[in-house]
Amino acid sequence: MSTWRTWVSGGMLAIFVGVLCGCGSASSQIQISPTSALLAPGQTFQFKVVVDVPNVPQFLWQVNGVIGGSPSTGTITTEGVYTAPATVAKEPILINVRDQAAHATVSLFDPNLPNQGVVAATQNPLVAAYTIPVPSGASAQVQFGTETSYGLTTSVVAPPAGETATILVAGMRESTPYHMRAVVNFADGSKYTDADHTFVTGAIPTDLRPDISAQLTGVGTPSPGIELLSLYPTSSANLLYAVATDLAGNVIWYYKLPNGAYPFPIKLLPNGHMLIVTGGTVNDVREIDLAGNIIHQITVDSIDASLANLASFRIGTLNHDILALPNGHLILLASIAQTINDSPGIPAPTAVTGNALIDWDPQLGAVWTWSTFDHLDLTHAPYGVSDWTHGNAVIYSPDDGDLIFSMRNQNWVVKINYADGSGDGKILWRLGPDGDFSLPAQEQPFEWNYGQHYVSIQSPNSSGIFSIMFFNNGNNRLMNSKGDVCGSLGVGACYSSVPIFELNEYTKEARVTWEDKLGPAYSICCGDALVLPNGNVEFDVAFDQNTPNVSYIEEVTRTDNPELIWRMNITGELAYRGFRIPSLYPGQVWSAEVGQPVGIADVHY
User: Fold this and answer.
1) What integer best gives the mean pLDDT of the chain?
2) Residue 73: CB partners within 8 Å, gap ≥ 6?
3) What angle do CA 352, 357, 359 make, to 5 degrees?
4) pLDDT value at position 52?
5) How many H helices and E strands in the chain?
6) pLDDT(56) > 80
7) Confidence at 591, pLDDT banded by 50, 70, 90
8) Which residues have CB under 8 Å from 10's CB, separation 6+?
9) Per-position DSSP letters for 444-463, written without gaps between them
10) Do 207 and 237 touch, CB atoms closer than 8 A?
11) Cis upstream peptide for 460 (omega within 30°)
12) Do residues 55 and 17 touch, judged by C-beta distance below 8 A?
């Protein structure tokens, strides 16, 4: 006979044939759900029974052995709805059904206790673990700062059935005393504020500490937030590469990767965890919490195993970007290789490295794939075929569910028919020289994207007529209609720029609506750009040939003649990406005044 698993509340049991008590034969098969609950005084809560038998008996709910309970320990209805006593009980509270061994325990949160939280160190010297009981239906967050005015706040945590919650507190400078307190918000709108706790952060080992500084120019005010940096090693030094700083350049969070590994890149997830593609000595995808604990991990071997029945390719390395989709899937970006023997103009055999995009379902693995070899012509190879496409960024288009993909070595940003996983992968358009869009005559050909990095949507819509932005590195930029390449004799020098393009998908017309031409700065690789919440623009100049061994990130006004507001210098490491994010906690914005750098009159380029 098959086993039935039935969820039953007390009132529903009457429809089943059974007896009121004495059903000892079913005792071992009955469970109460949940098995524990943390409640506020006077709070109501629904308990249920789970029965693994085909004929379900009727039960009588009890509190501490009393059918229906009592005012001192709480009452429970025939439907299993428990109401906690108005005052905290002095004895343990057990919920069960008559003559059954299974039970649930109820704990009561006492709002009159002055100190219910506990603060402890974690494996990260800049991160504390704040543990506090949170009743069912309530939420908690931690306020923290160097003074008792606090100023910084974590995200809200709301355990589903009430339990002791541990909130990781991050965003603190090294070797500094911090004050912190938890605030518990009850369902009825009342609050409990825990006592103040003091936590002293540890020191970052000297041999790991990156060389980062920041300056203000006195023009305007920086947009709020912090910097999240994906740094790349340029020497054998074992420095930190996954780093967050305040706007003064102080490290306020980091993740120590294995020696020889670096983030390629790192991003903040909506759940408050960090998503990292690791490069170098380790190559995987890992989701970590702020203390550095690995929550999920995807290896290259597991990806290849999942691709066995879905795609003809196997991946080389994961690199350059990763995209978290609204549905919880990930778009993985990987390098793939083929040996070409029969392509016109390419001697056989020739090894060609392209790219693949993989839709990764956390439960099912790979569920959709896309390959440059299936959708691009090998004859379009501005930088040769050995590193044919060099994809470096992929973003999601919410309007149509498609993907927008940047390929540096194609000088193209393309839109791919993804259609939320049901698309055929067709390239819908190509933005760049020899692509599908046209530029106004006065912008030809020097305004096209050359060796670009990153891409972001800068309009409320992502289809039709909309705006995008990227860091235009300017590699081999064509300077005139004759096709003269920048840096050639008698032609202007190469330079990088930060343009915003308006794209018209209907007419395939493009035009530059704003641009910061960074010359003489010329960054031959890496970088990113985005519009900040205050309307300013921030960009990462990672590999400026004029500033060897120094990457810098700048915030400028979005005006016809952009003015520099803020600058960060990173010495001895390449800033593959550097982003302003609101804080380390989704939904929280940290003021730019926290950890503000000292103003200077002049910033040298």
Assistant:
1) 91
2) 63, 64, 66, 85, 89, 91, 93
3) 155
4) 67
5) 2, 45
6) no
7) confident
8) 59, 60, 61, 77, 78, 79, 80
9) TTTTS-SS-EEEEE-SS-SS
10) yes
11) no
12) yes
CA 205 to CA 160: how far, in whole Å?
39
- CB 377, CB 306: distance < 8 Å: no
Q: Which residues contact 304 (CB under 8 A, 6 or more apart)?
A: 314, 315
Pairing of strands 103-108, 36-39: parallel
**Neighbouring residues of 15: CB distance < 8 A, sequence distance ≥ 6:** none
Q: How far apart are CA 480 and CA 200, in angstroms?
A: 59
Angle at the Cα of 379 (from 449 to 512), degrees rounded to 5?
15
- What does the block give as tokens for 510? 């493009």
Q: Which token pair is 116?
A: 């219910």
Q: What are phi and psi of 116, to 5 degrees?
A: -110, -10
- Which residues fall within 8 angstroms of residue 160, CB to CB, at 6 or more apart? 136
* CA 563 to each of CA 96, 426, 516, 538, 560: distance values in angstroms, whole numbers, following the listed order: 69, 41, 10, 12, 9
Whether cis (ω within 30° of 0) applies to the bond prior to 135 is: no
Return the SS3 of 28. Answer: helix
Give the per-residue pLDDT at 64: 96
The count of residues in the chain is 605
Parse the chain into domains and list their residue ranges. Answer: 6-108, 118-200
Q: Which helix (H) or strand (E) holds 373?
A: helix 372-375
pTM: 0.91
Query: Which DSSP letter does residue 113 get?
Result: -
Are 6-108 and 118-200 equal in CATH topology? Answer: yes
Helix, strand, coil tally for the chain in percent (to 5): 5, 45, 50
Alpha-carbon span 344 to 329, nearest angstrom: 38
Q: How far apart are CA 408 and CA 413, in angstroms?
A: 8
| 17-27 pLDDT per residue, tens | 333 333 444 44
CATH no., domain 118-200: 2.60.40.10
- CATH number listed for the domain at residues 6-108: 2.60.40
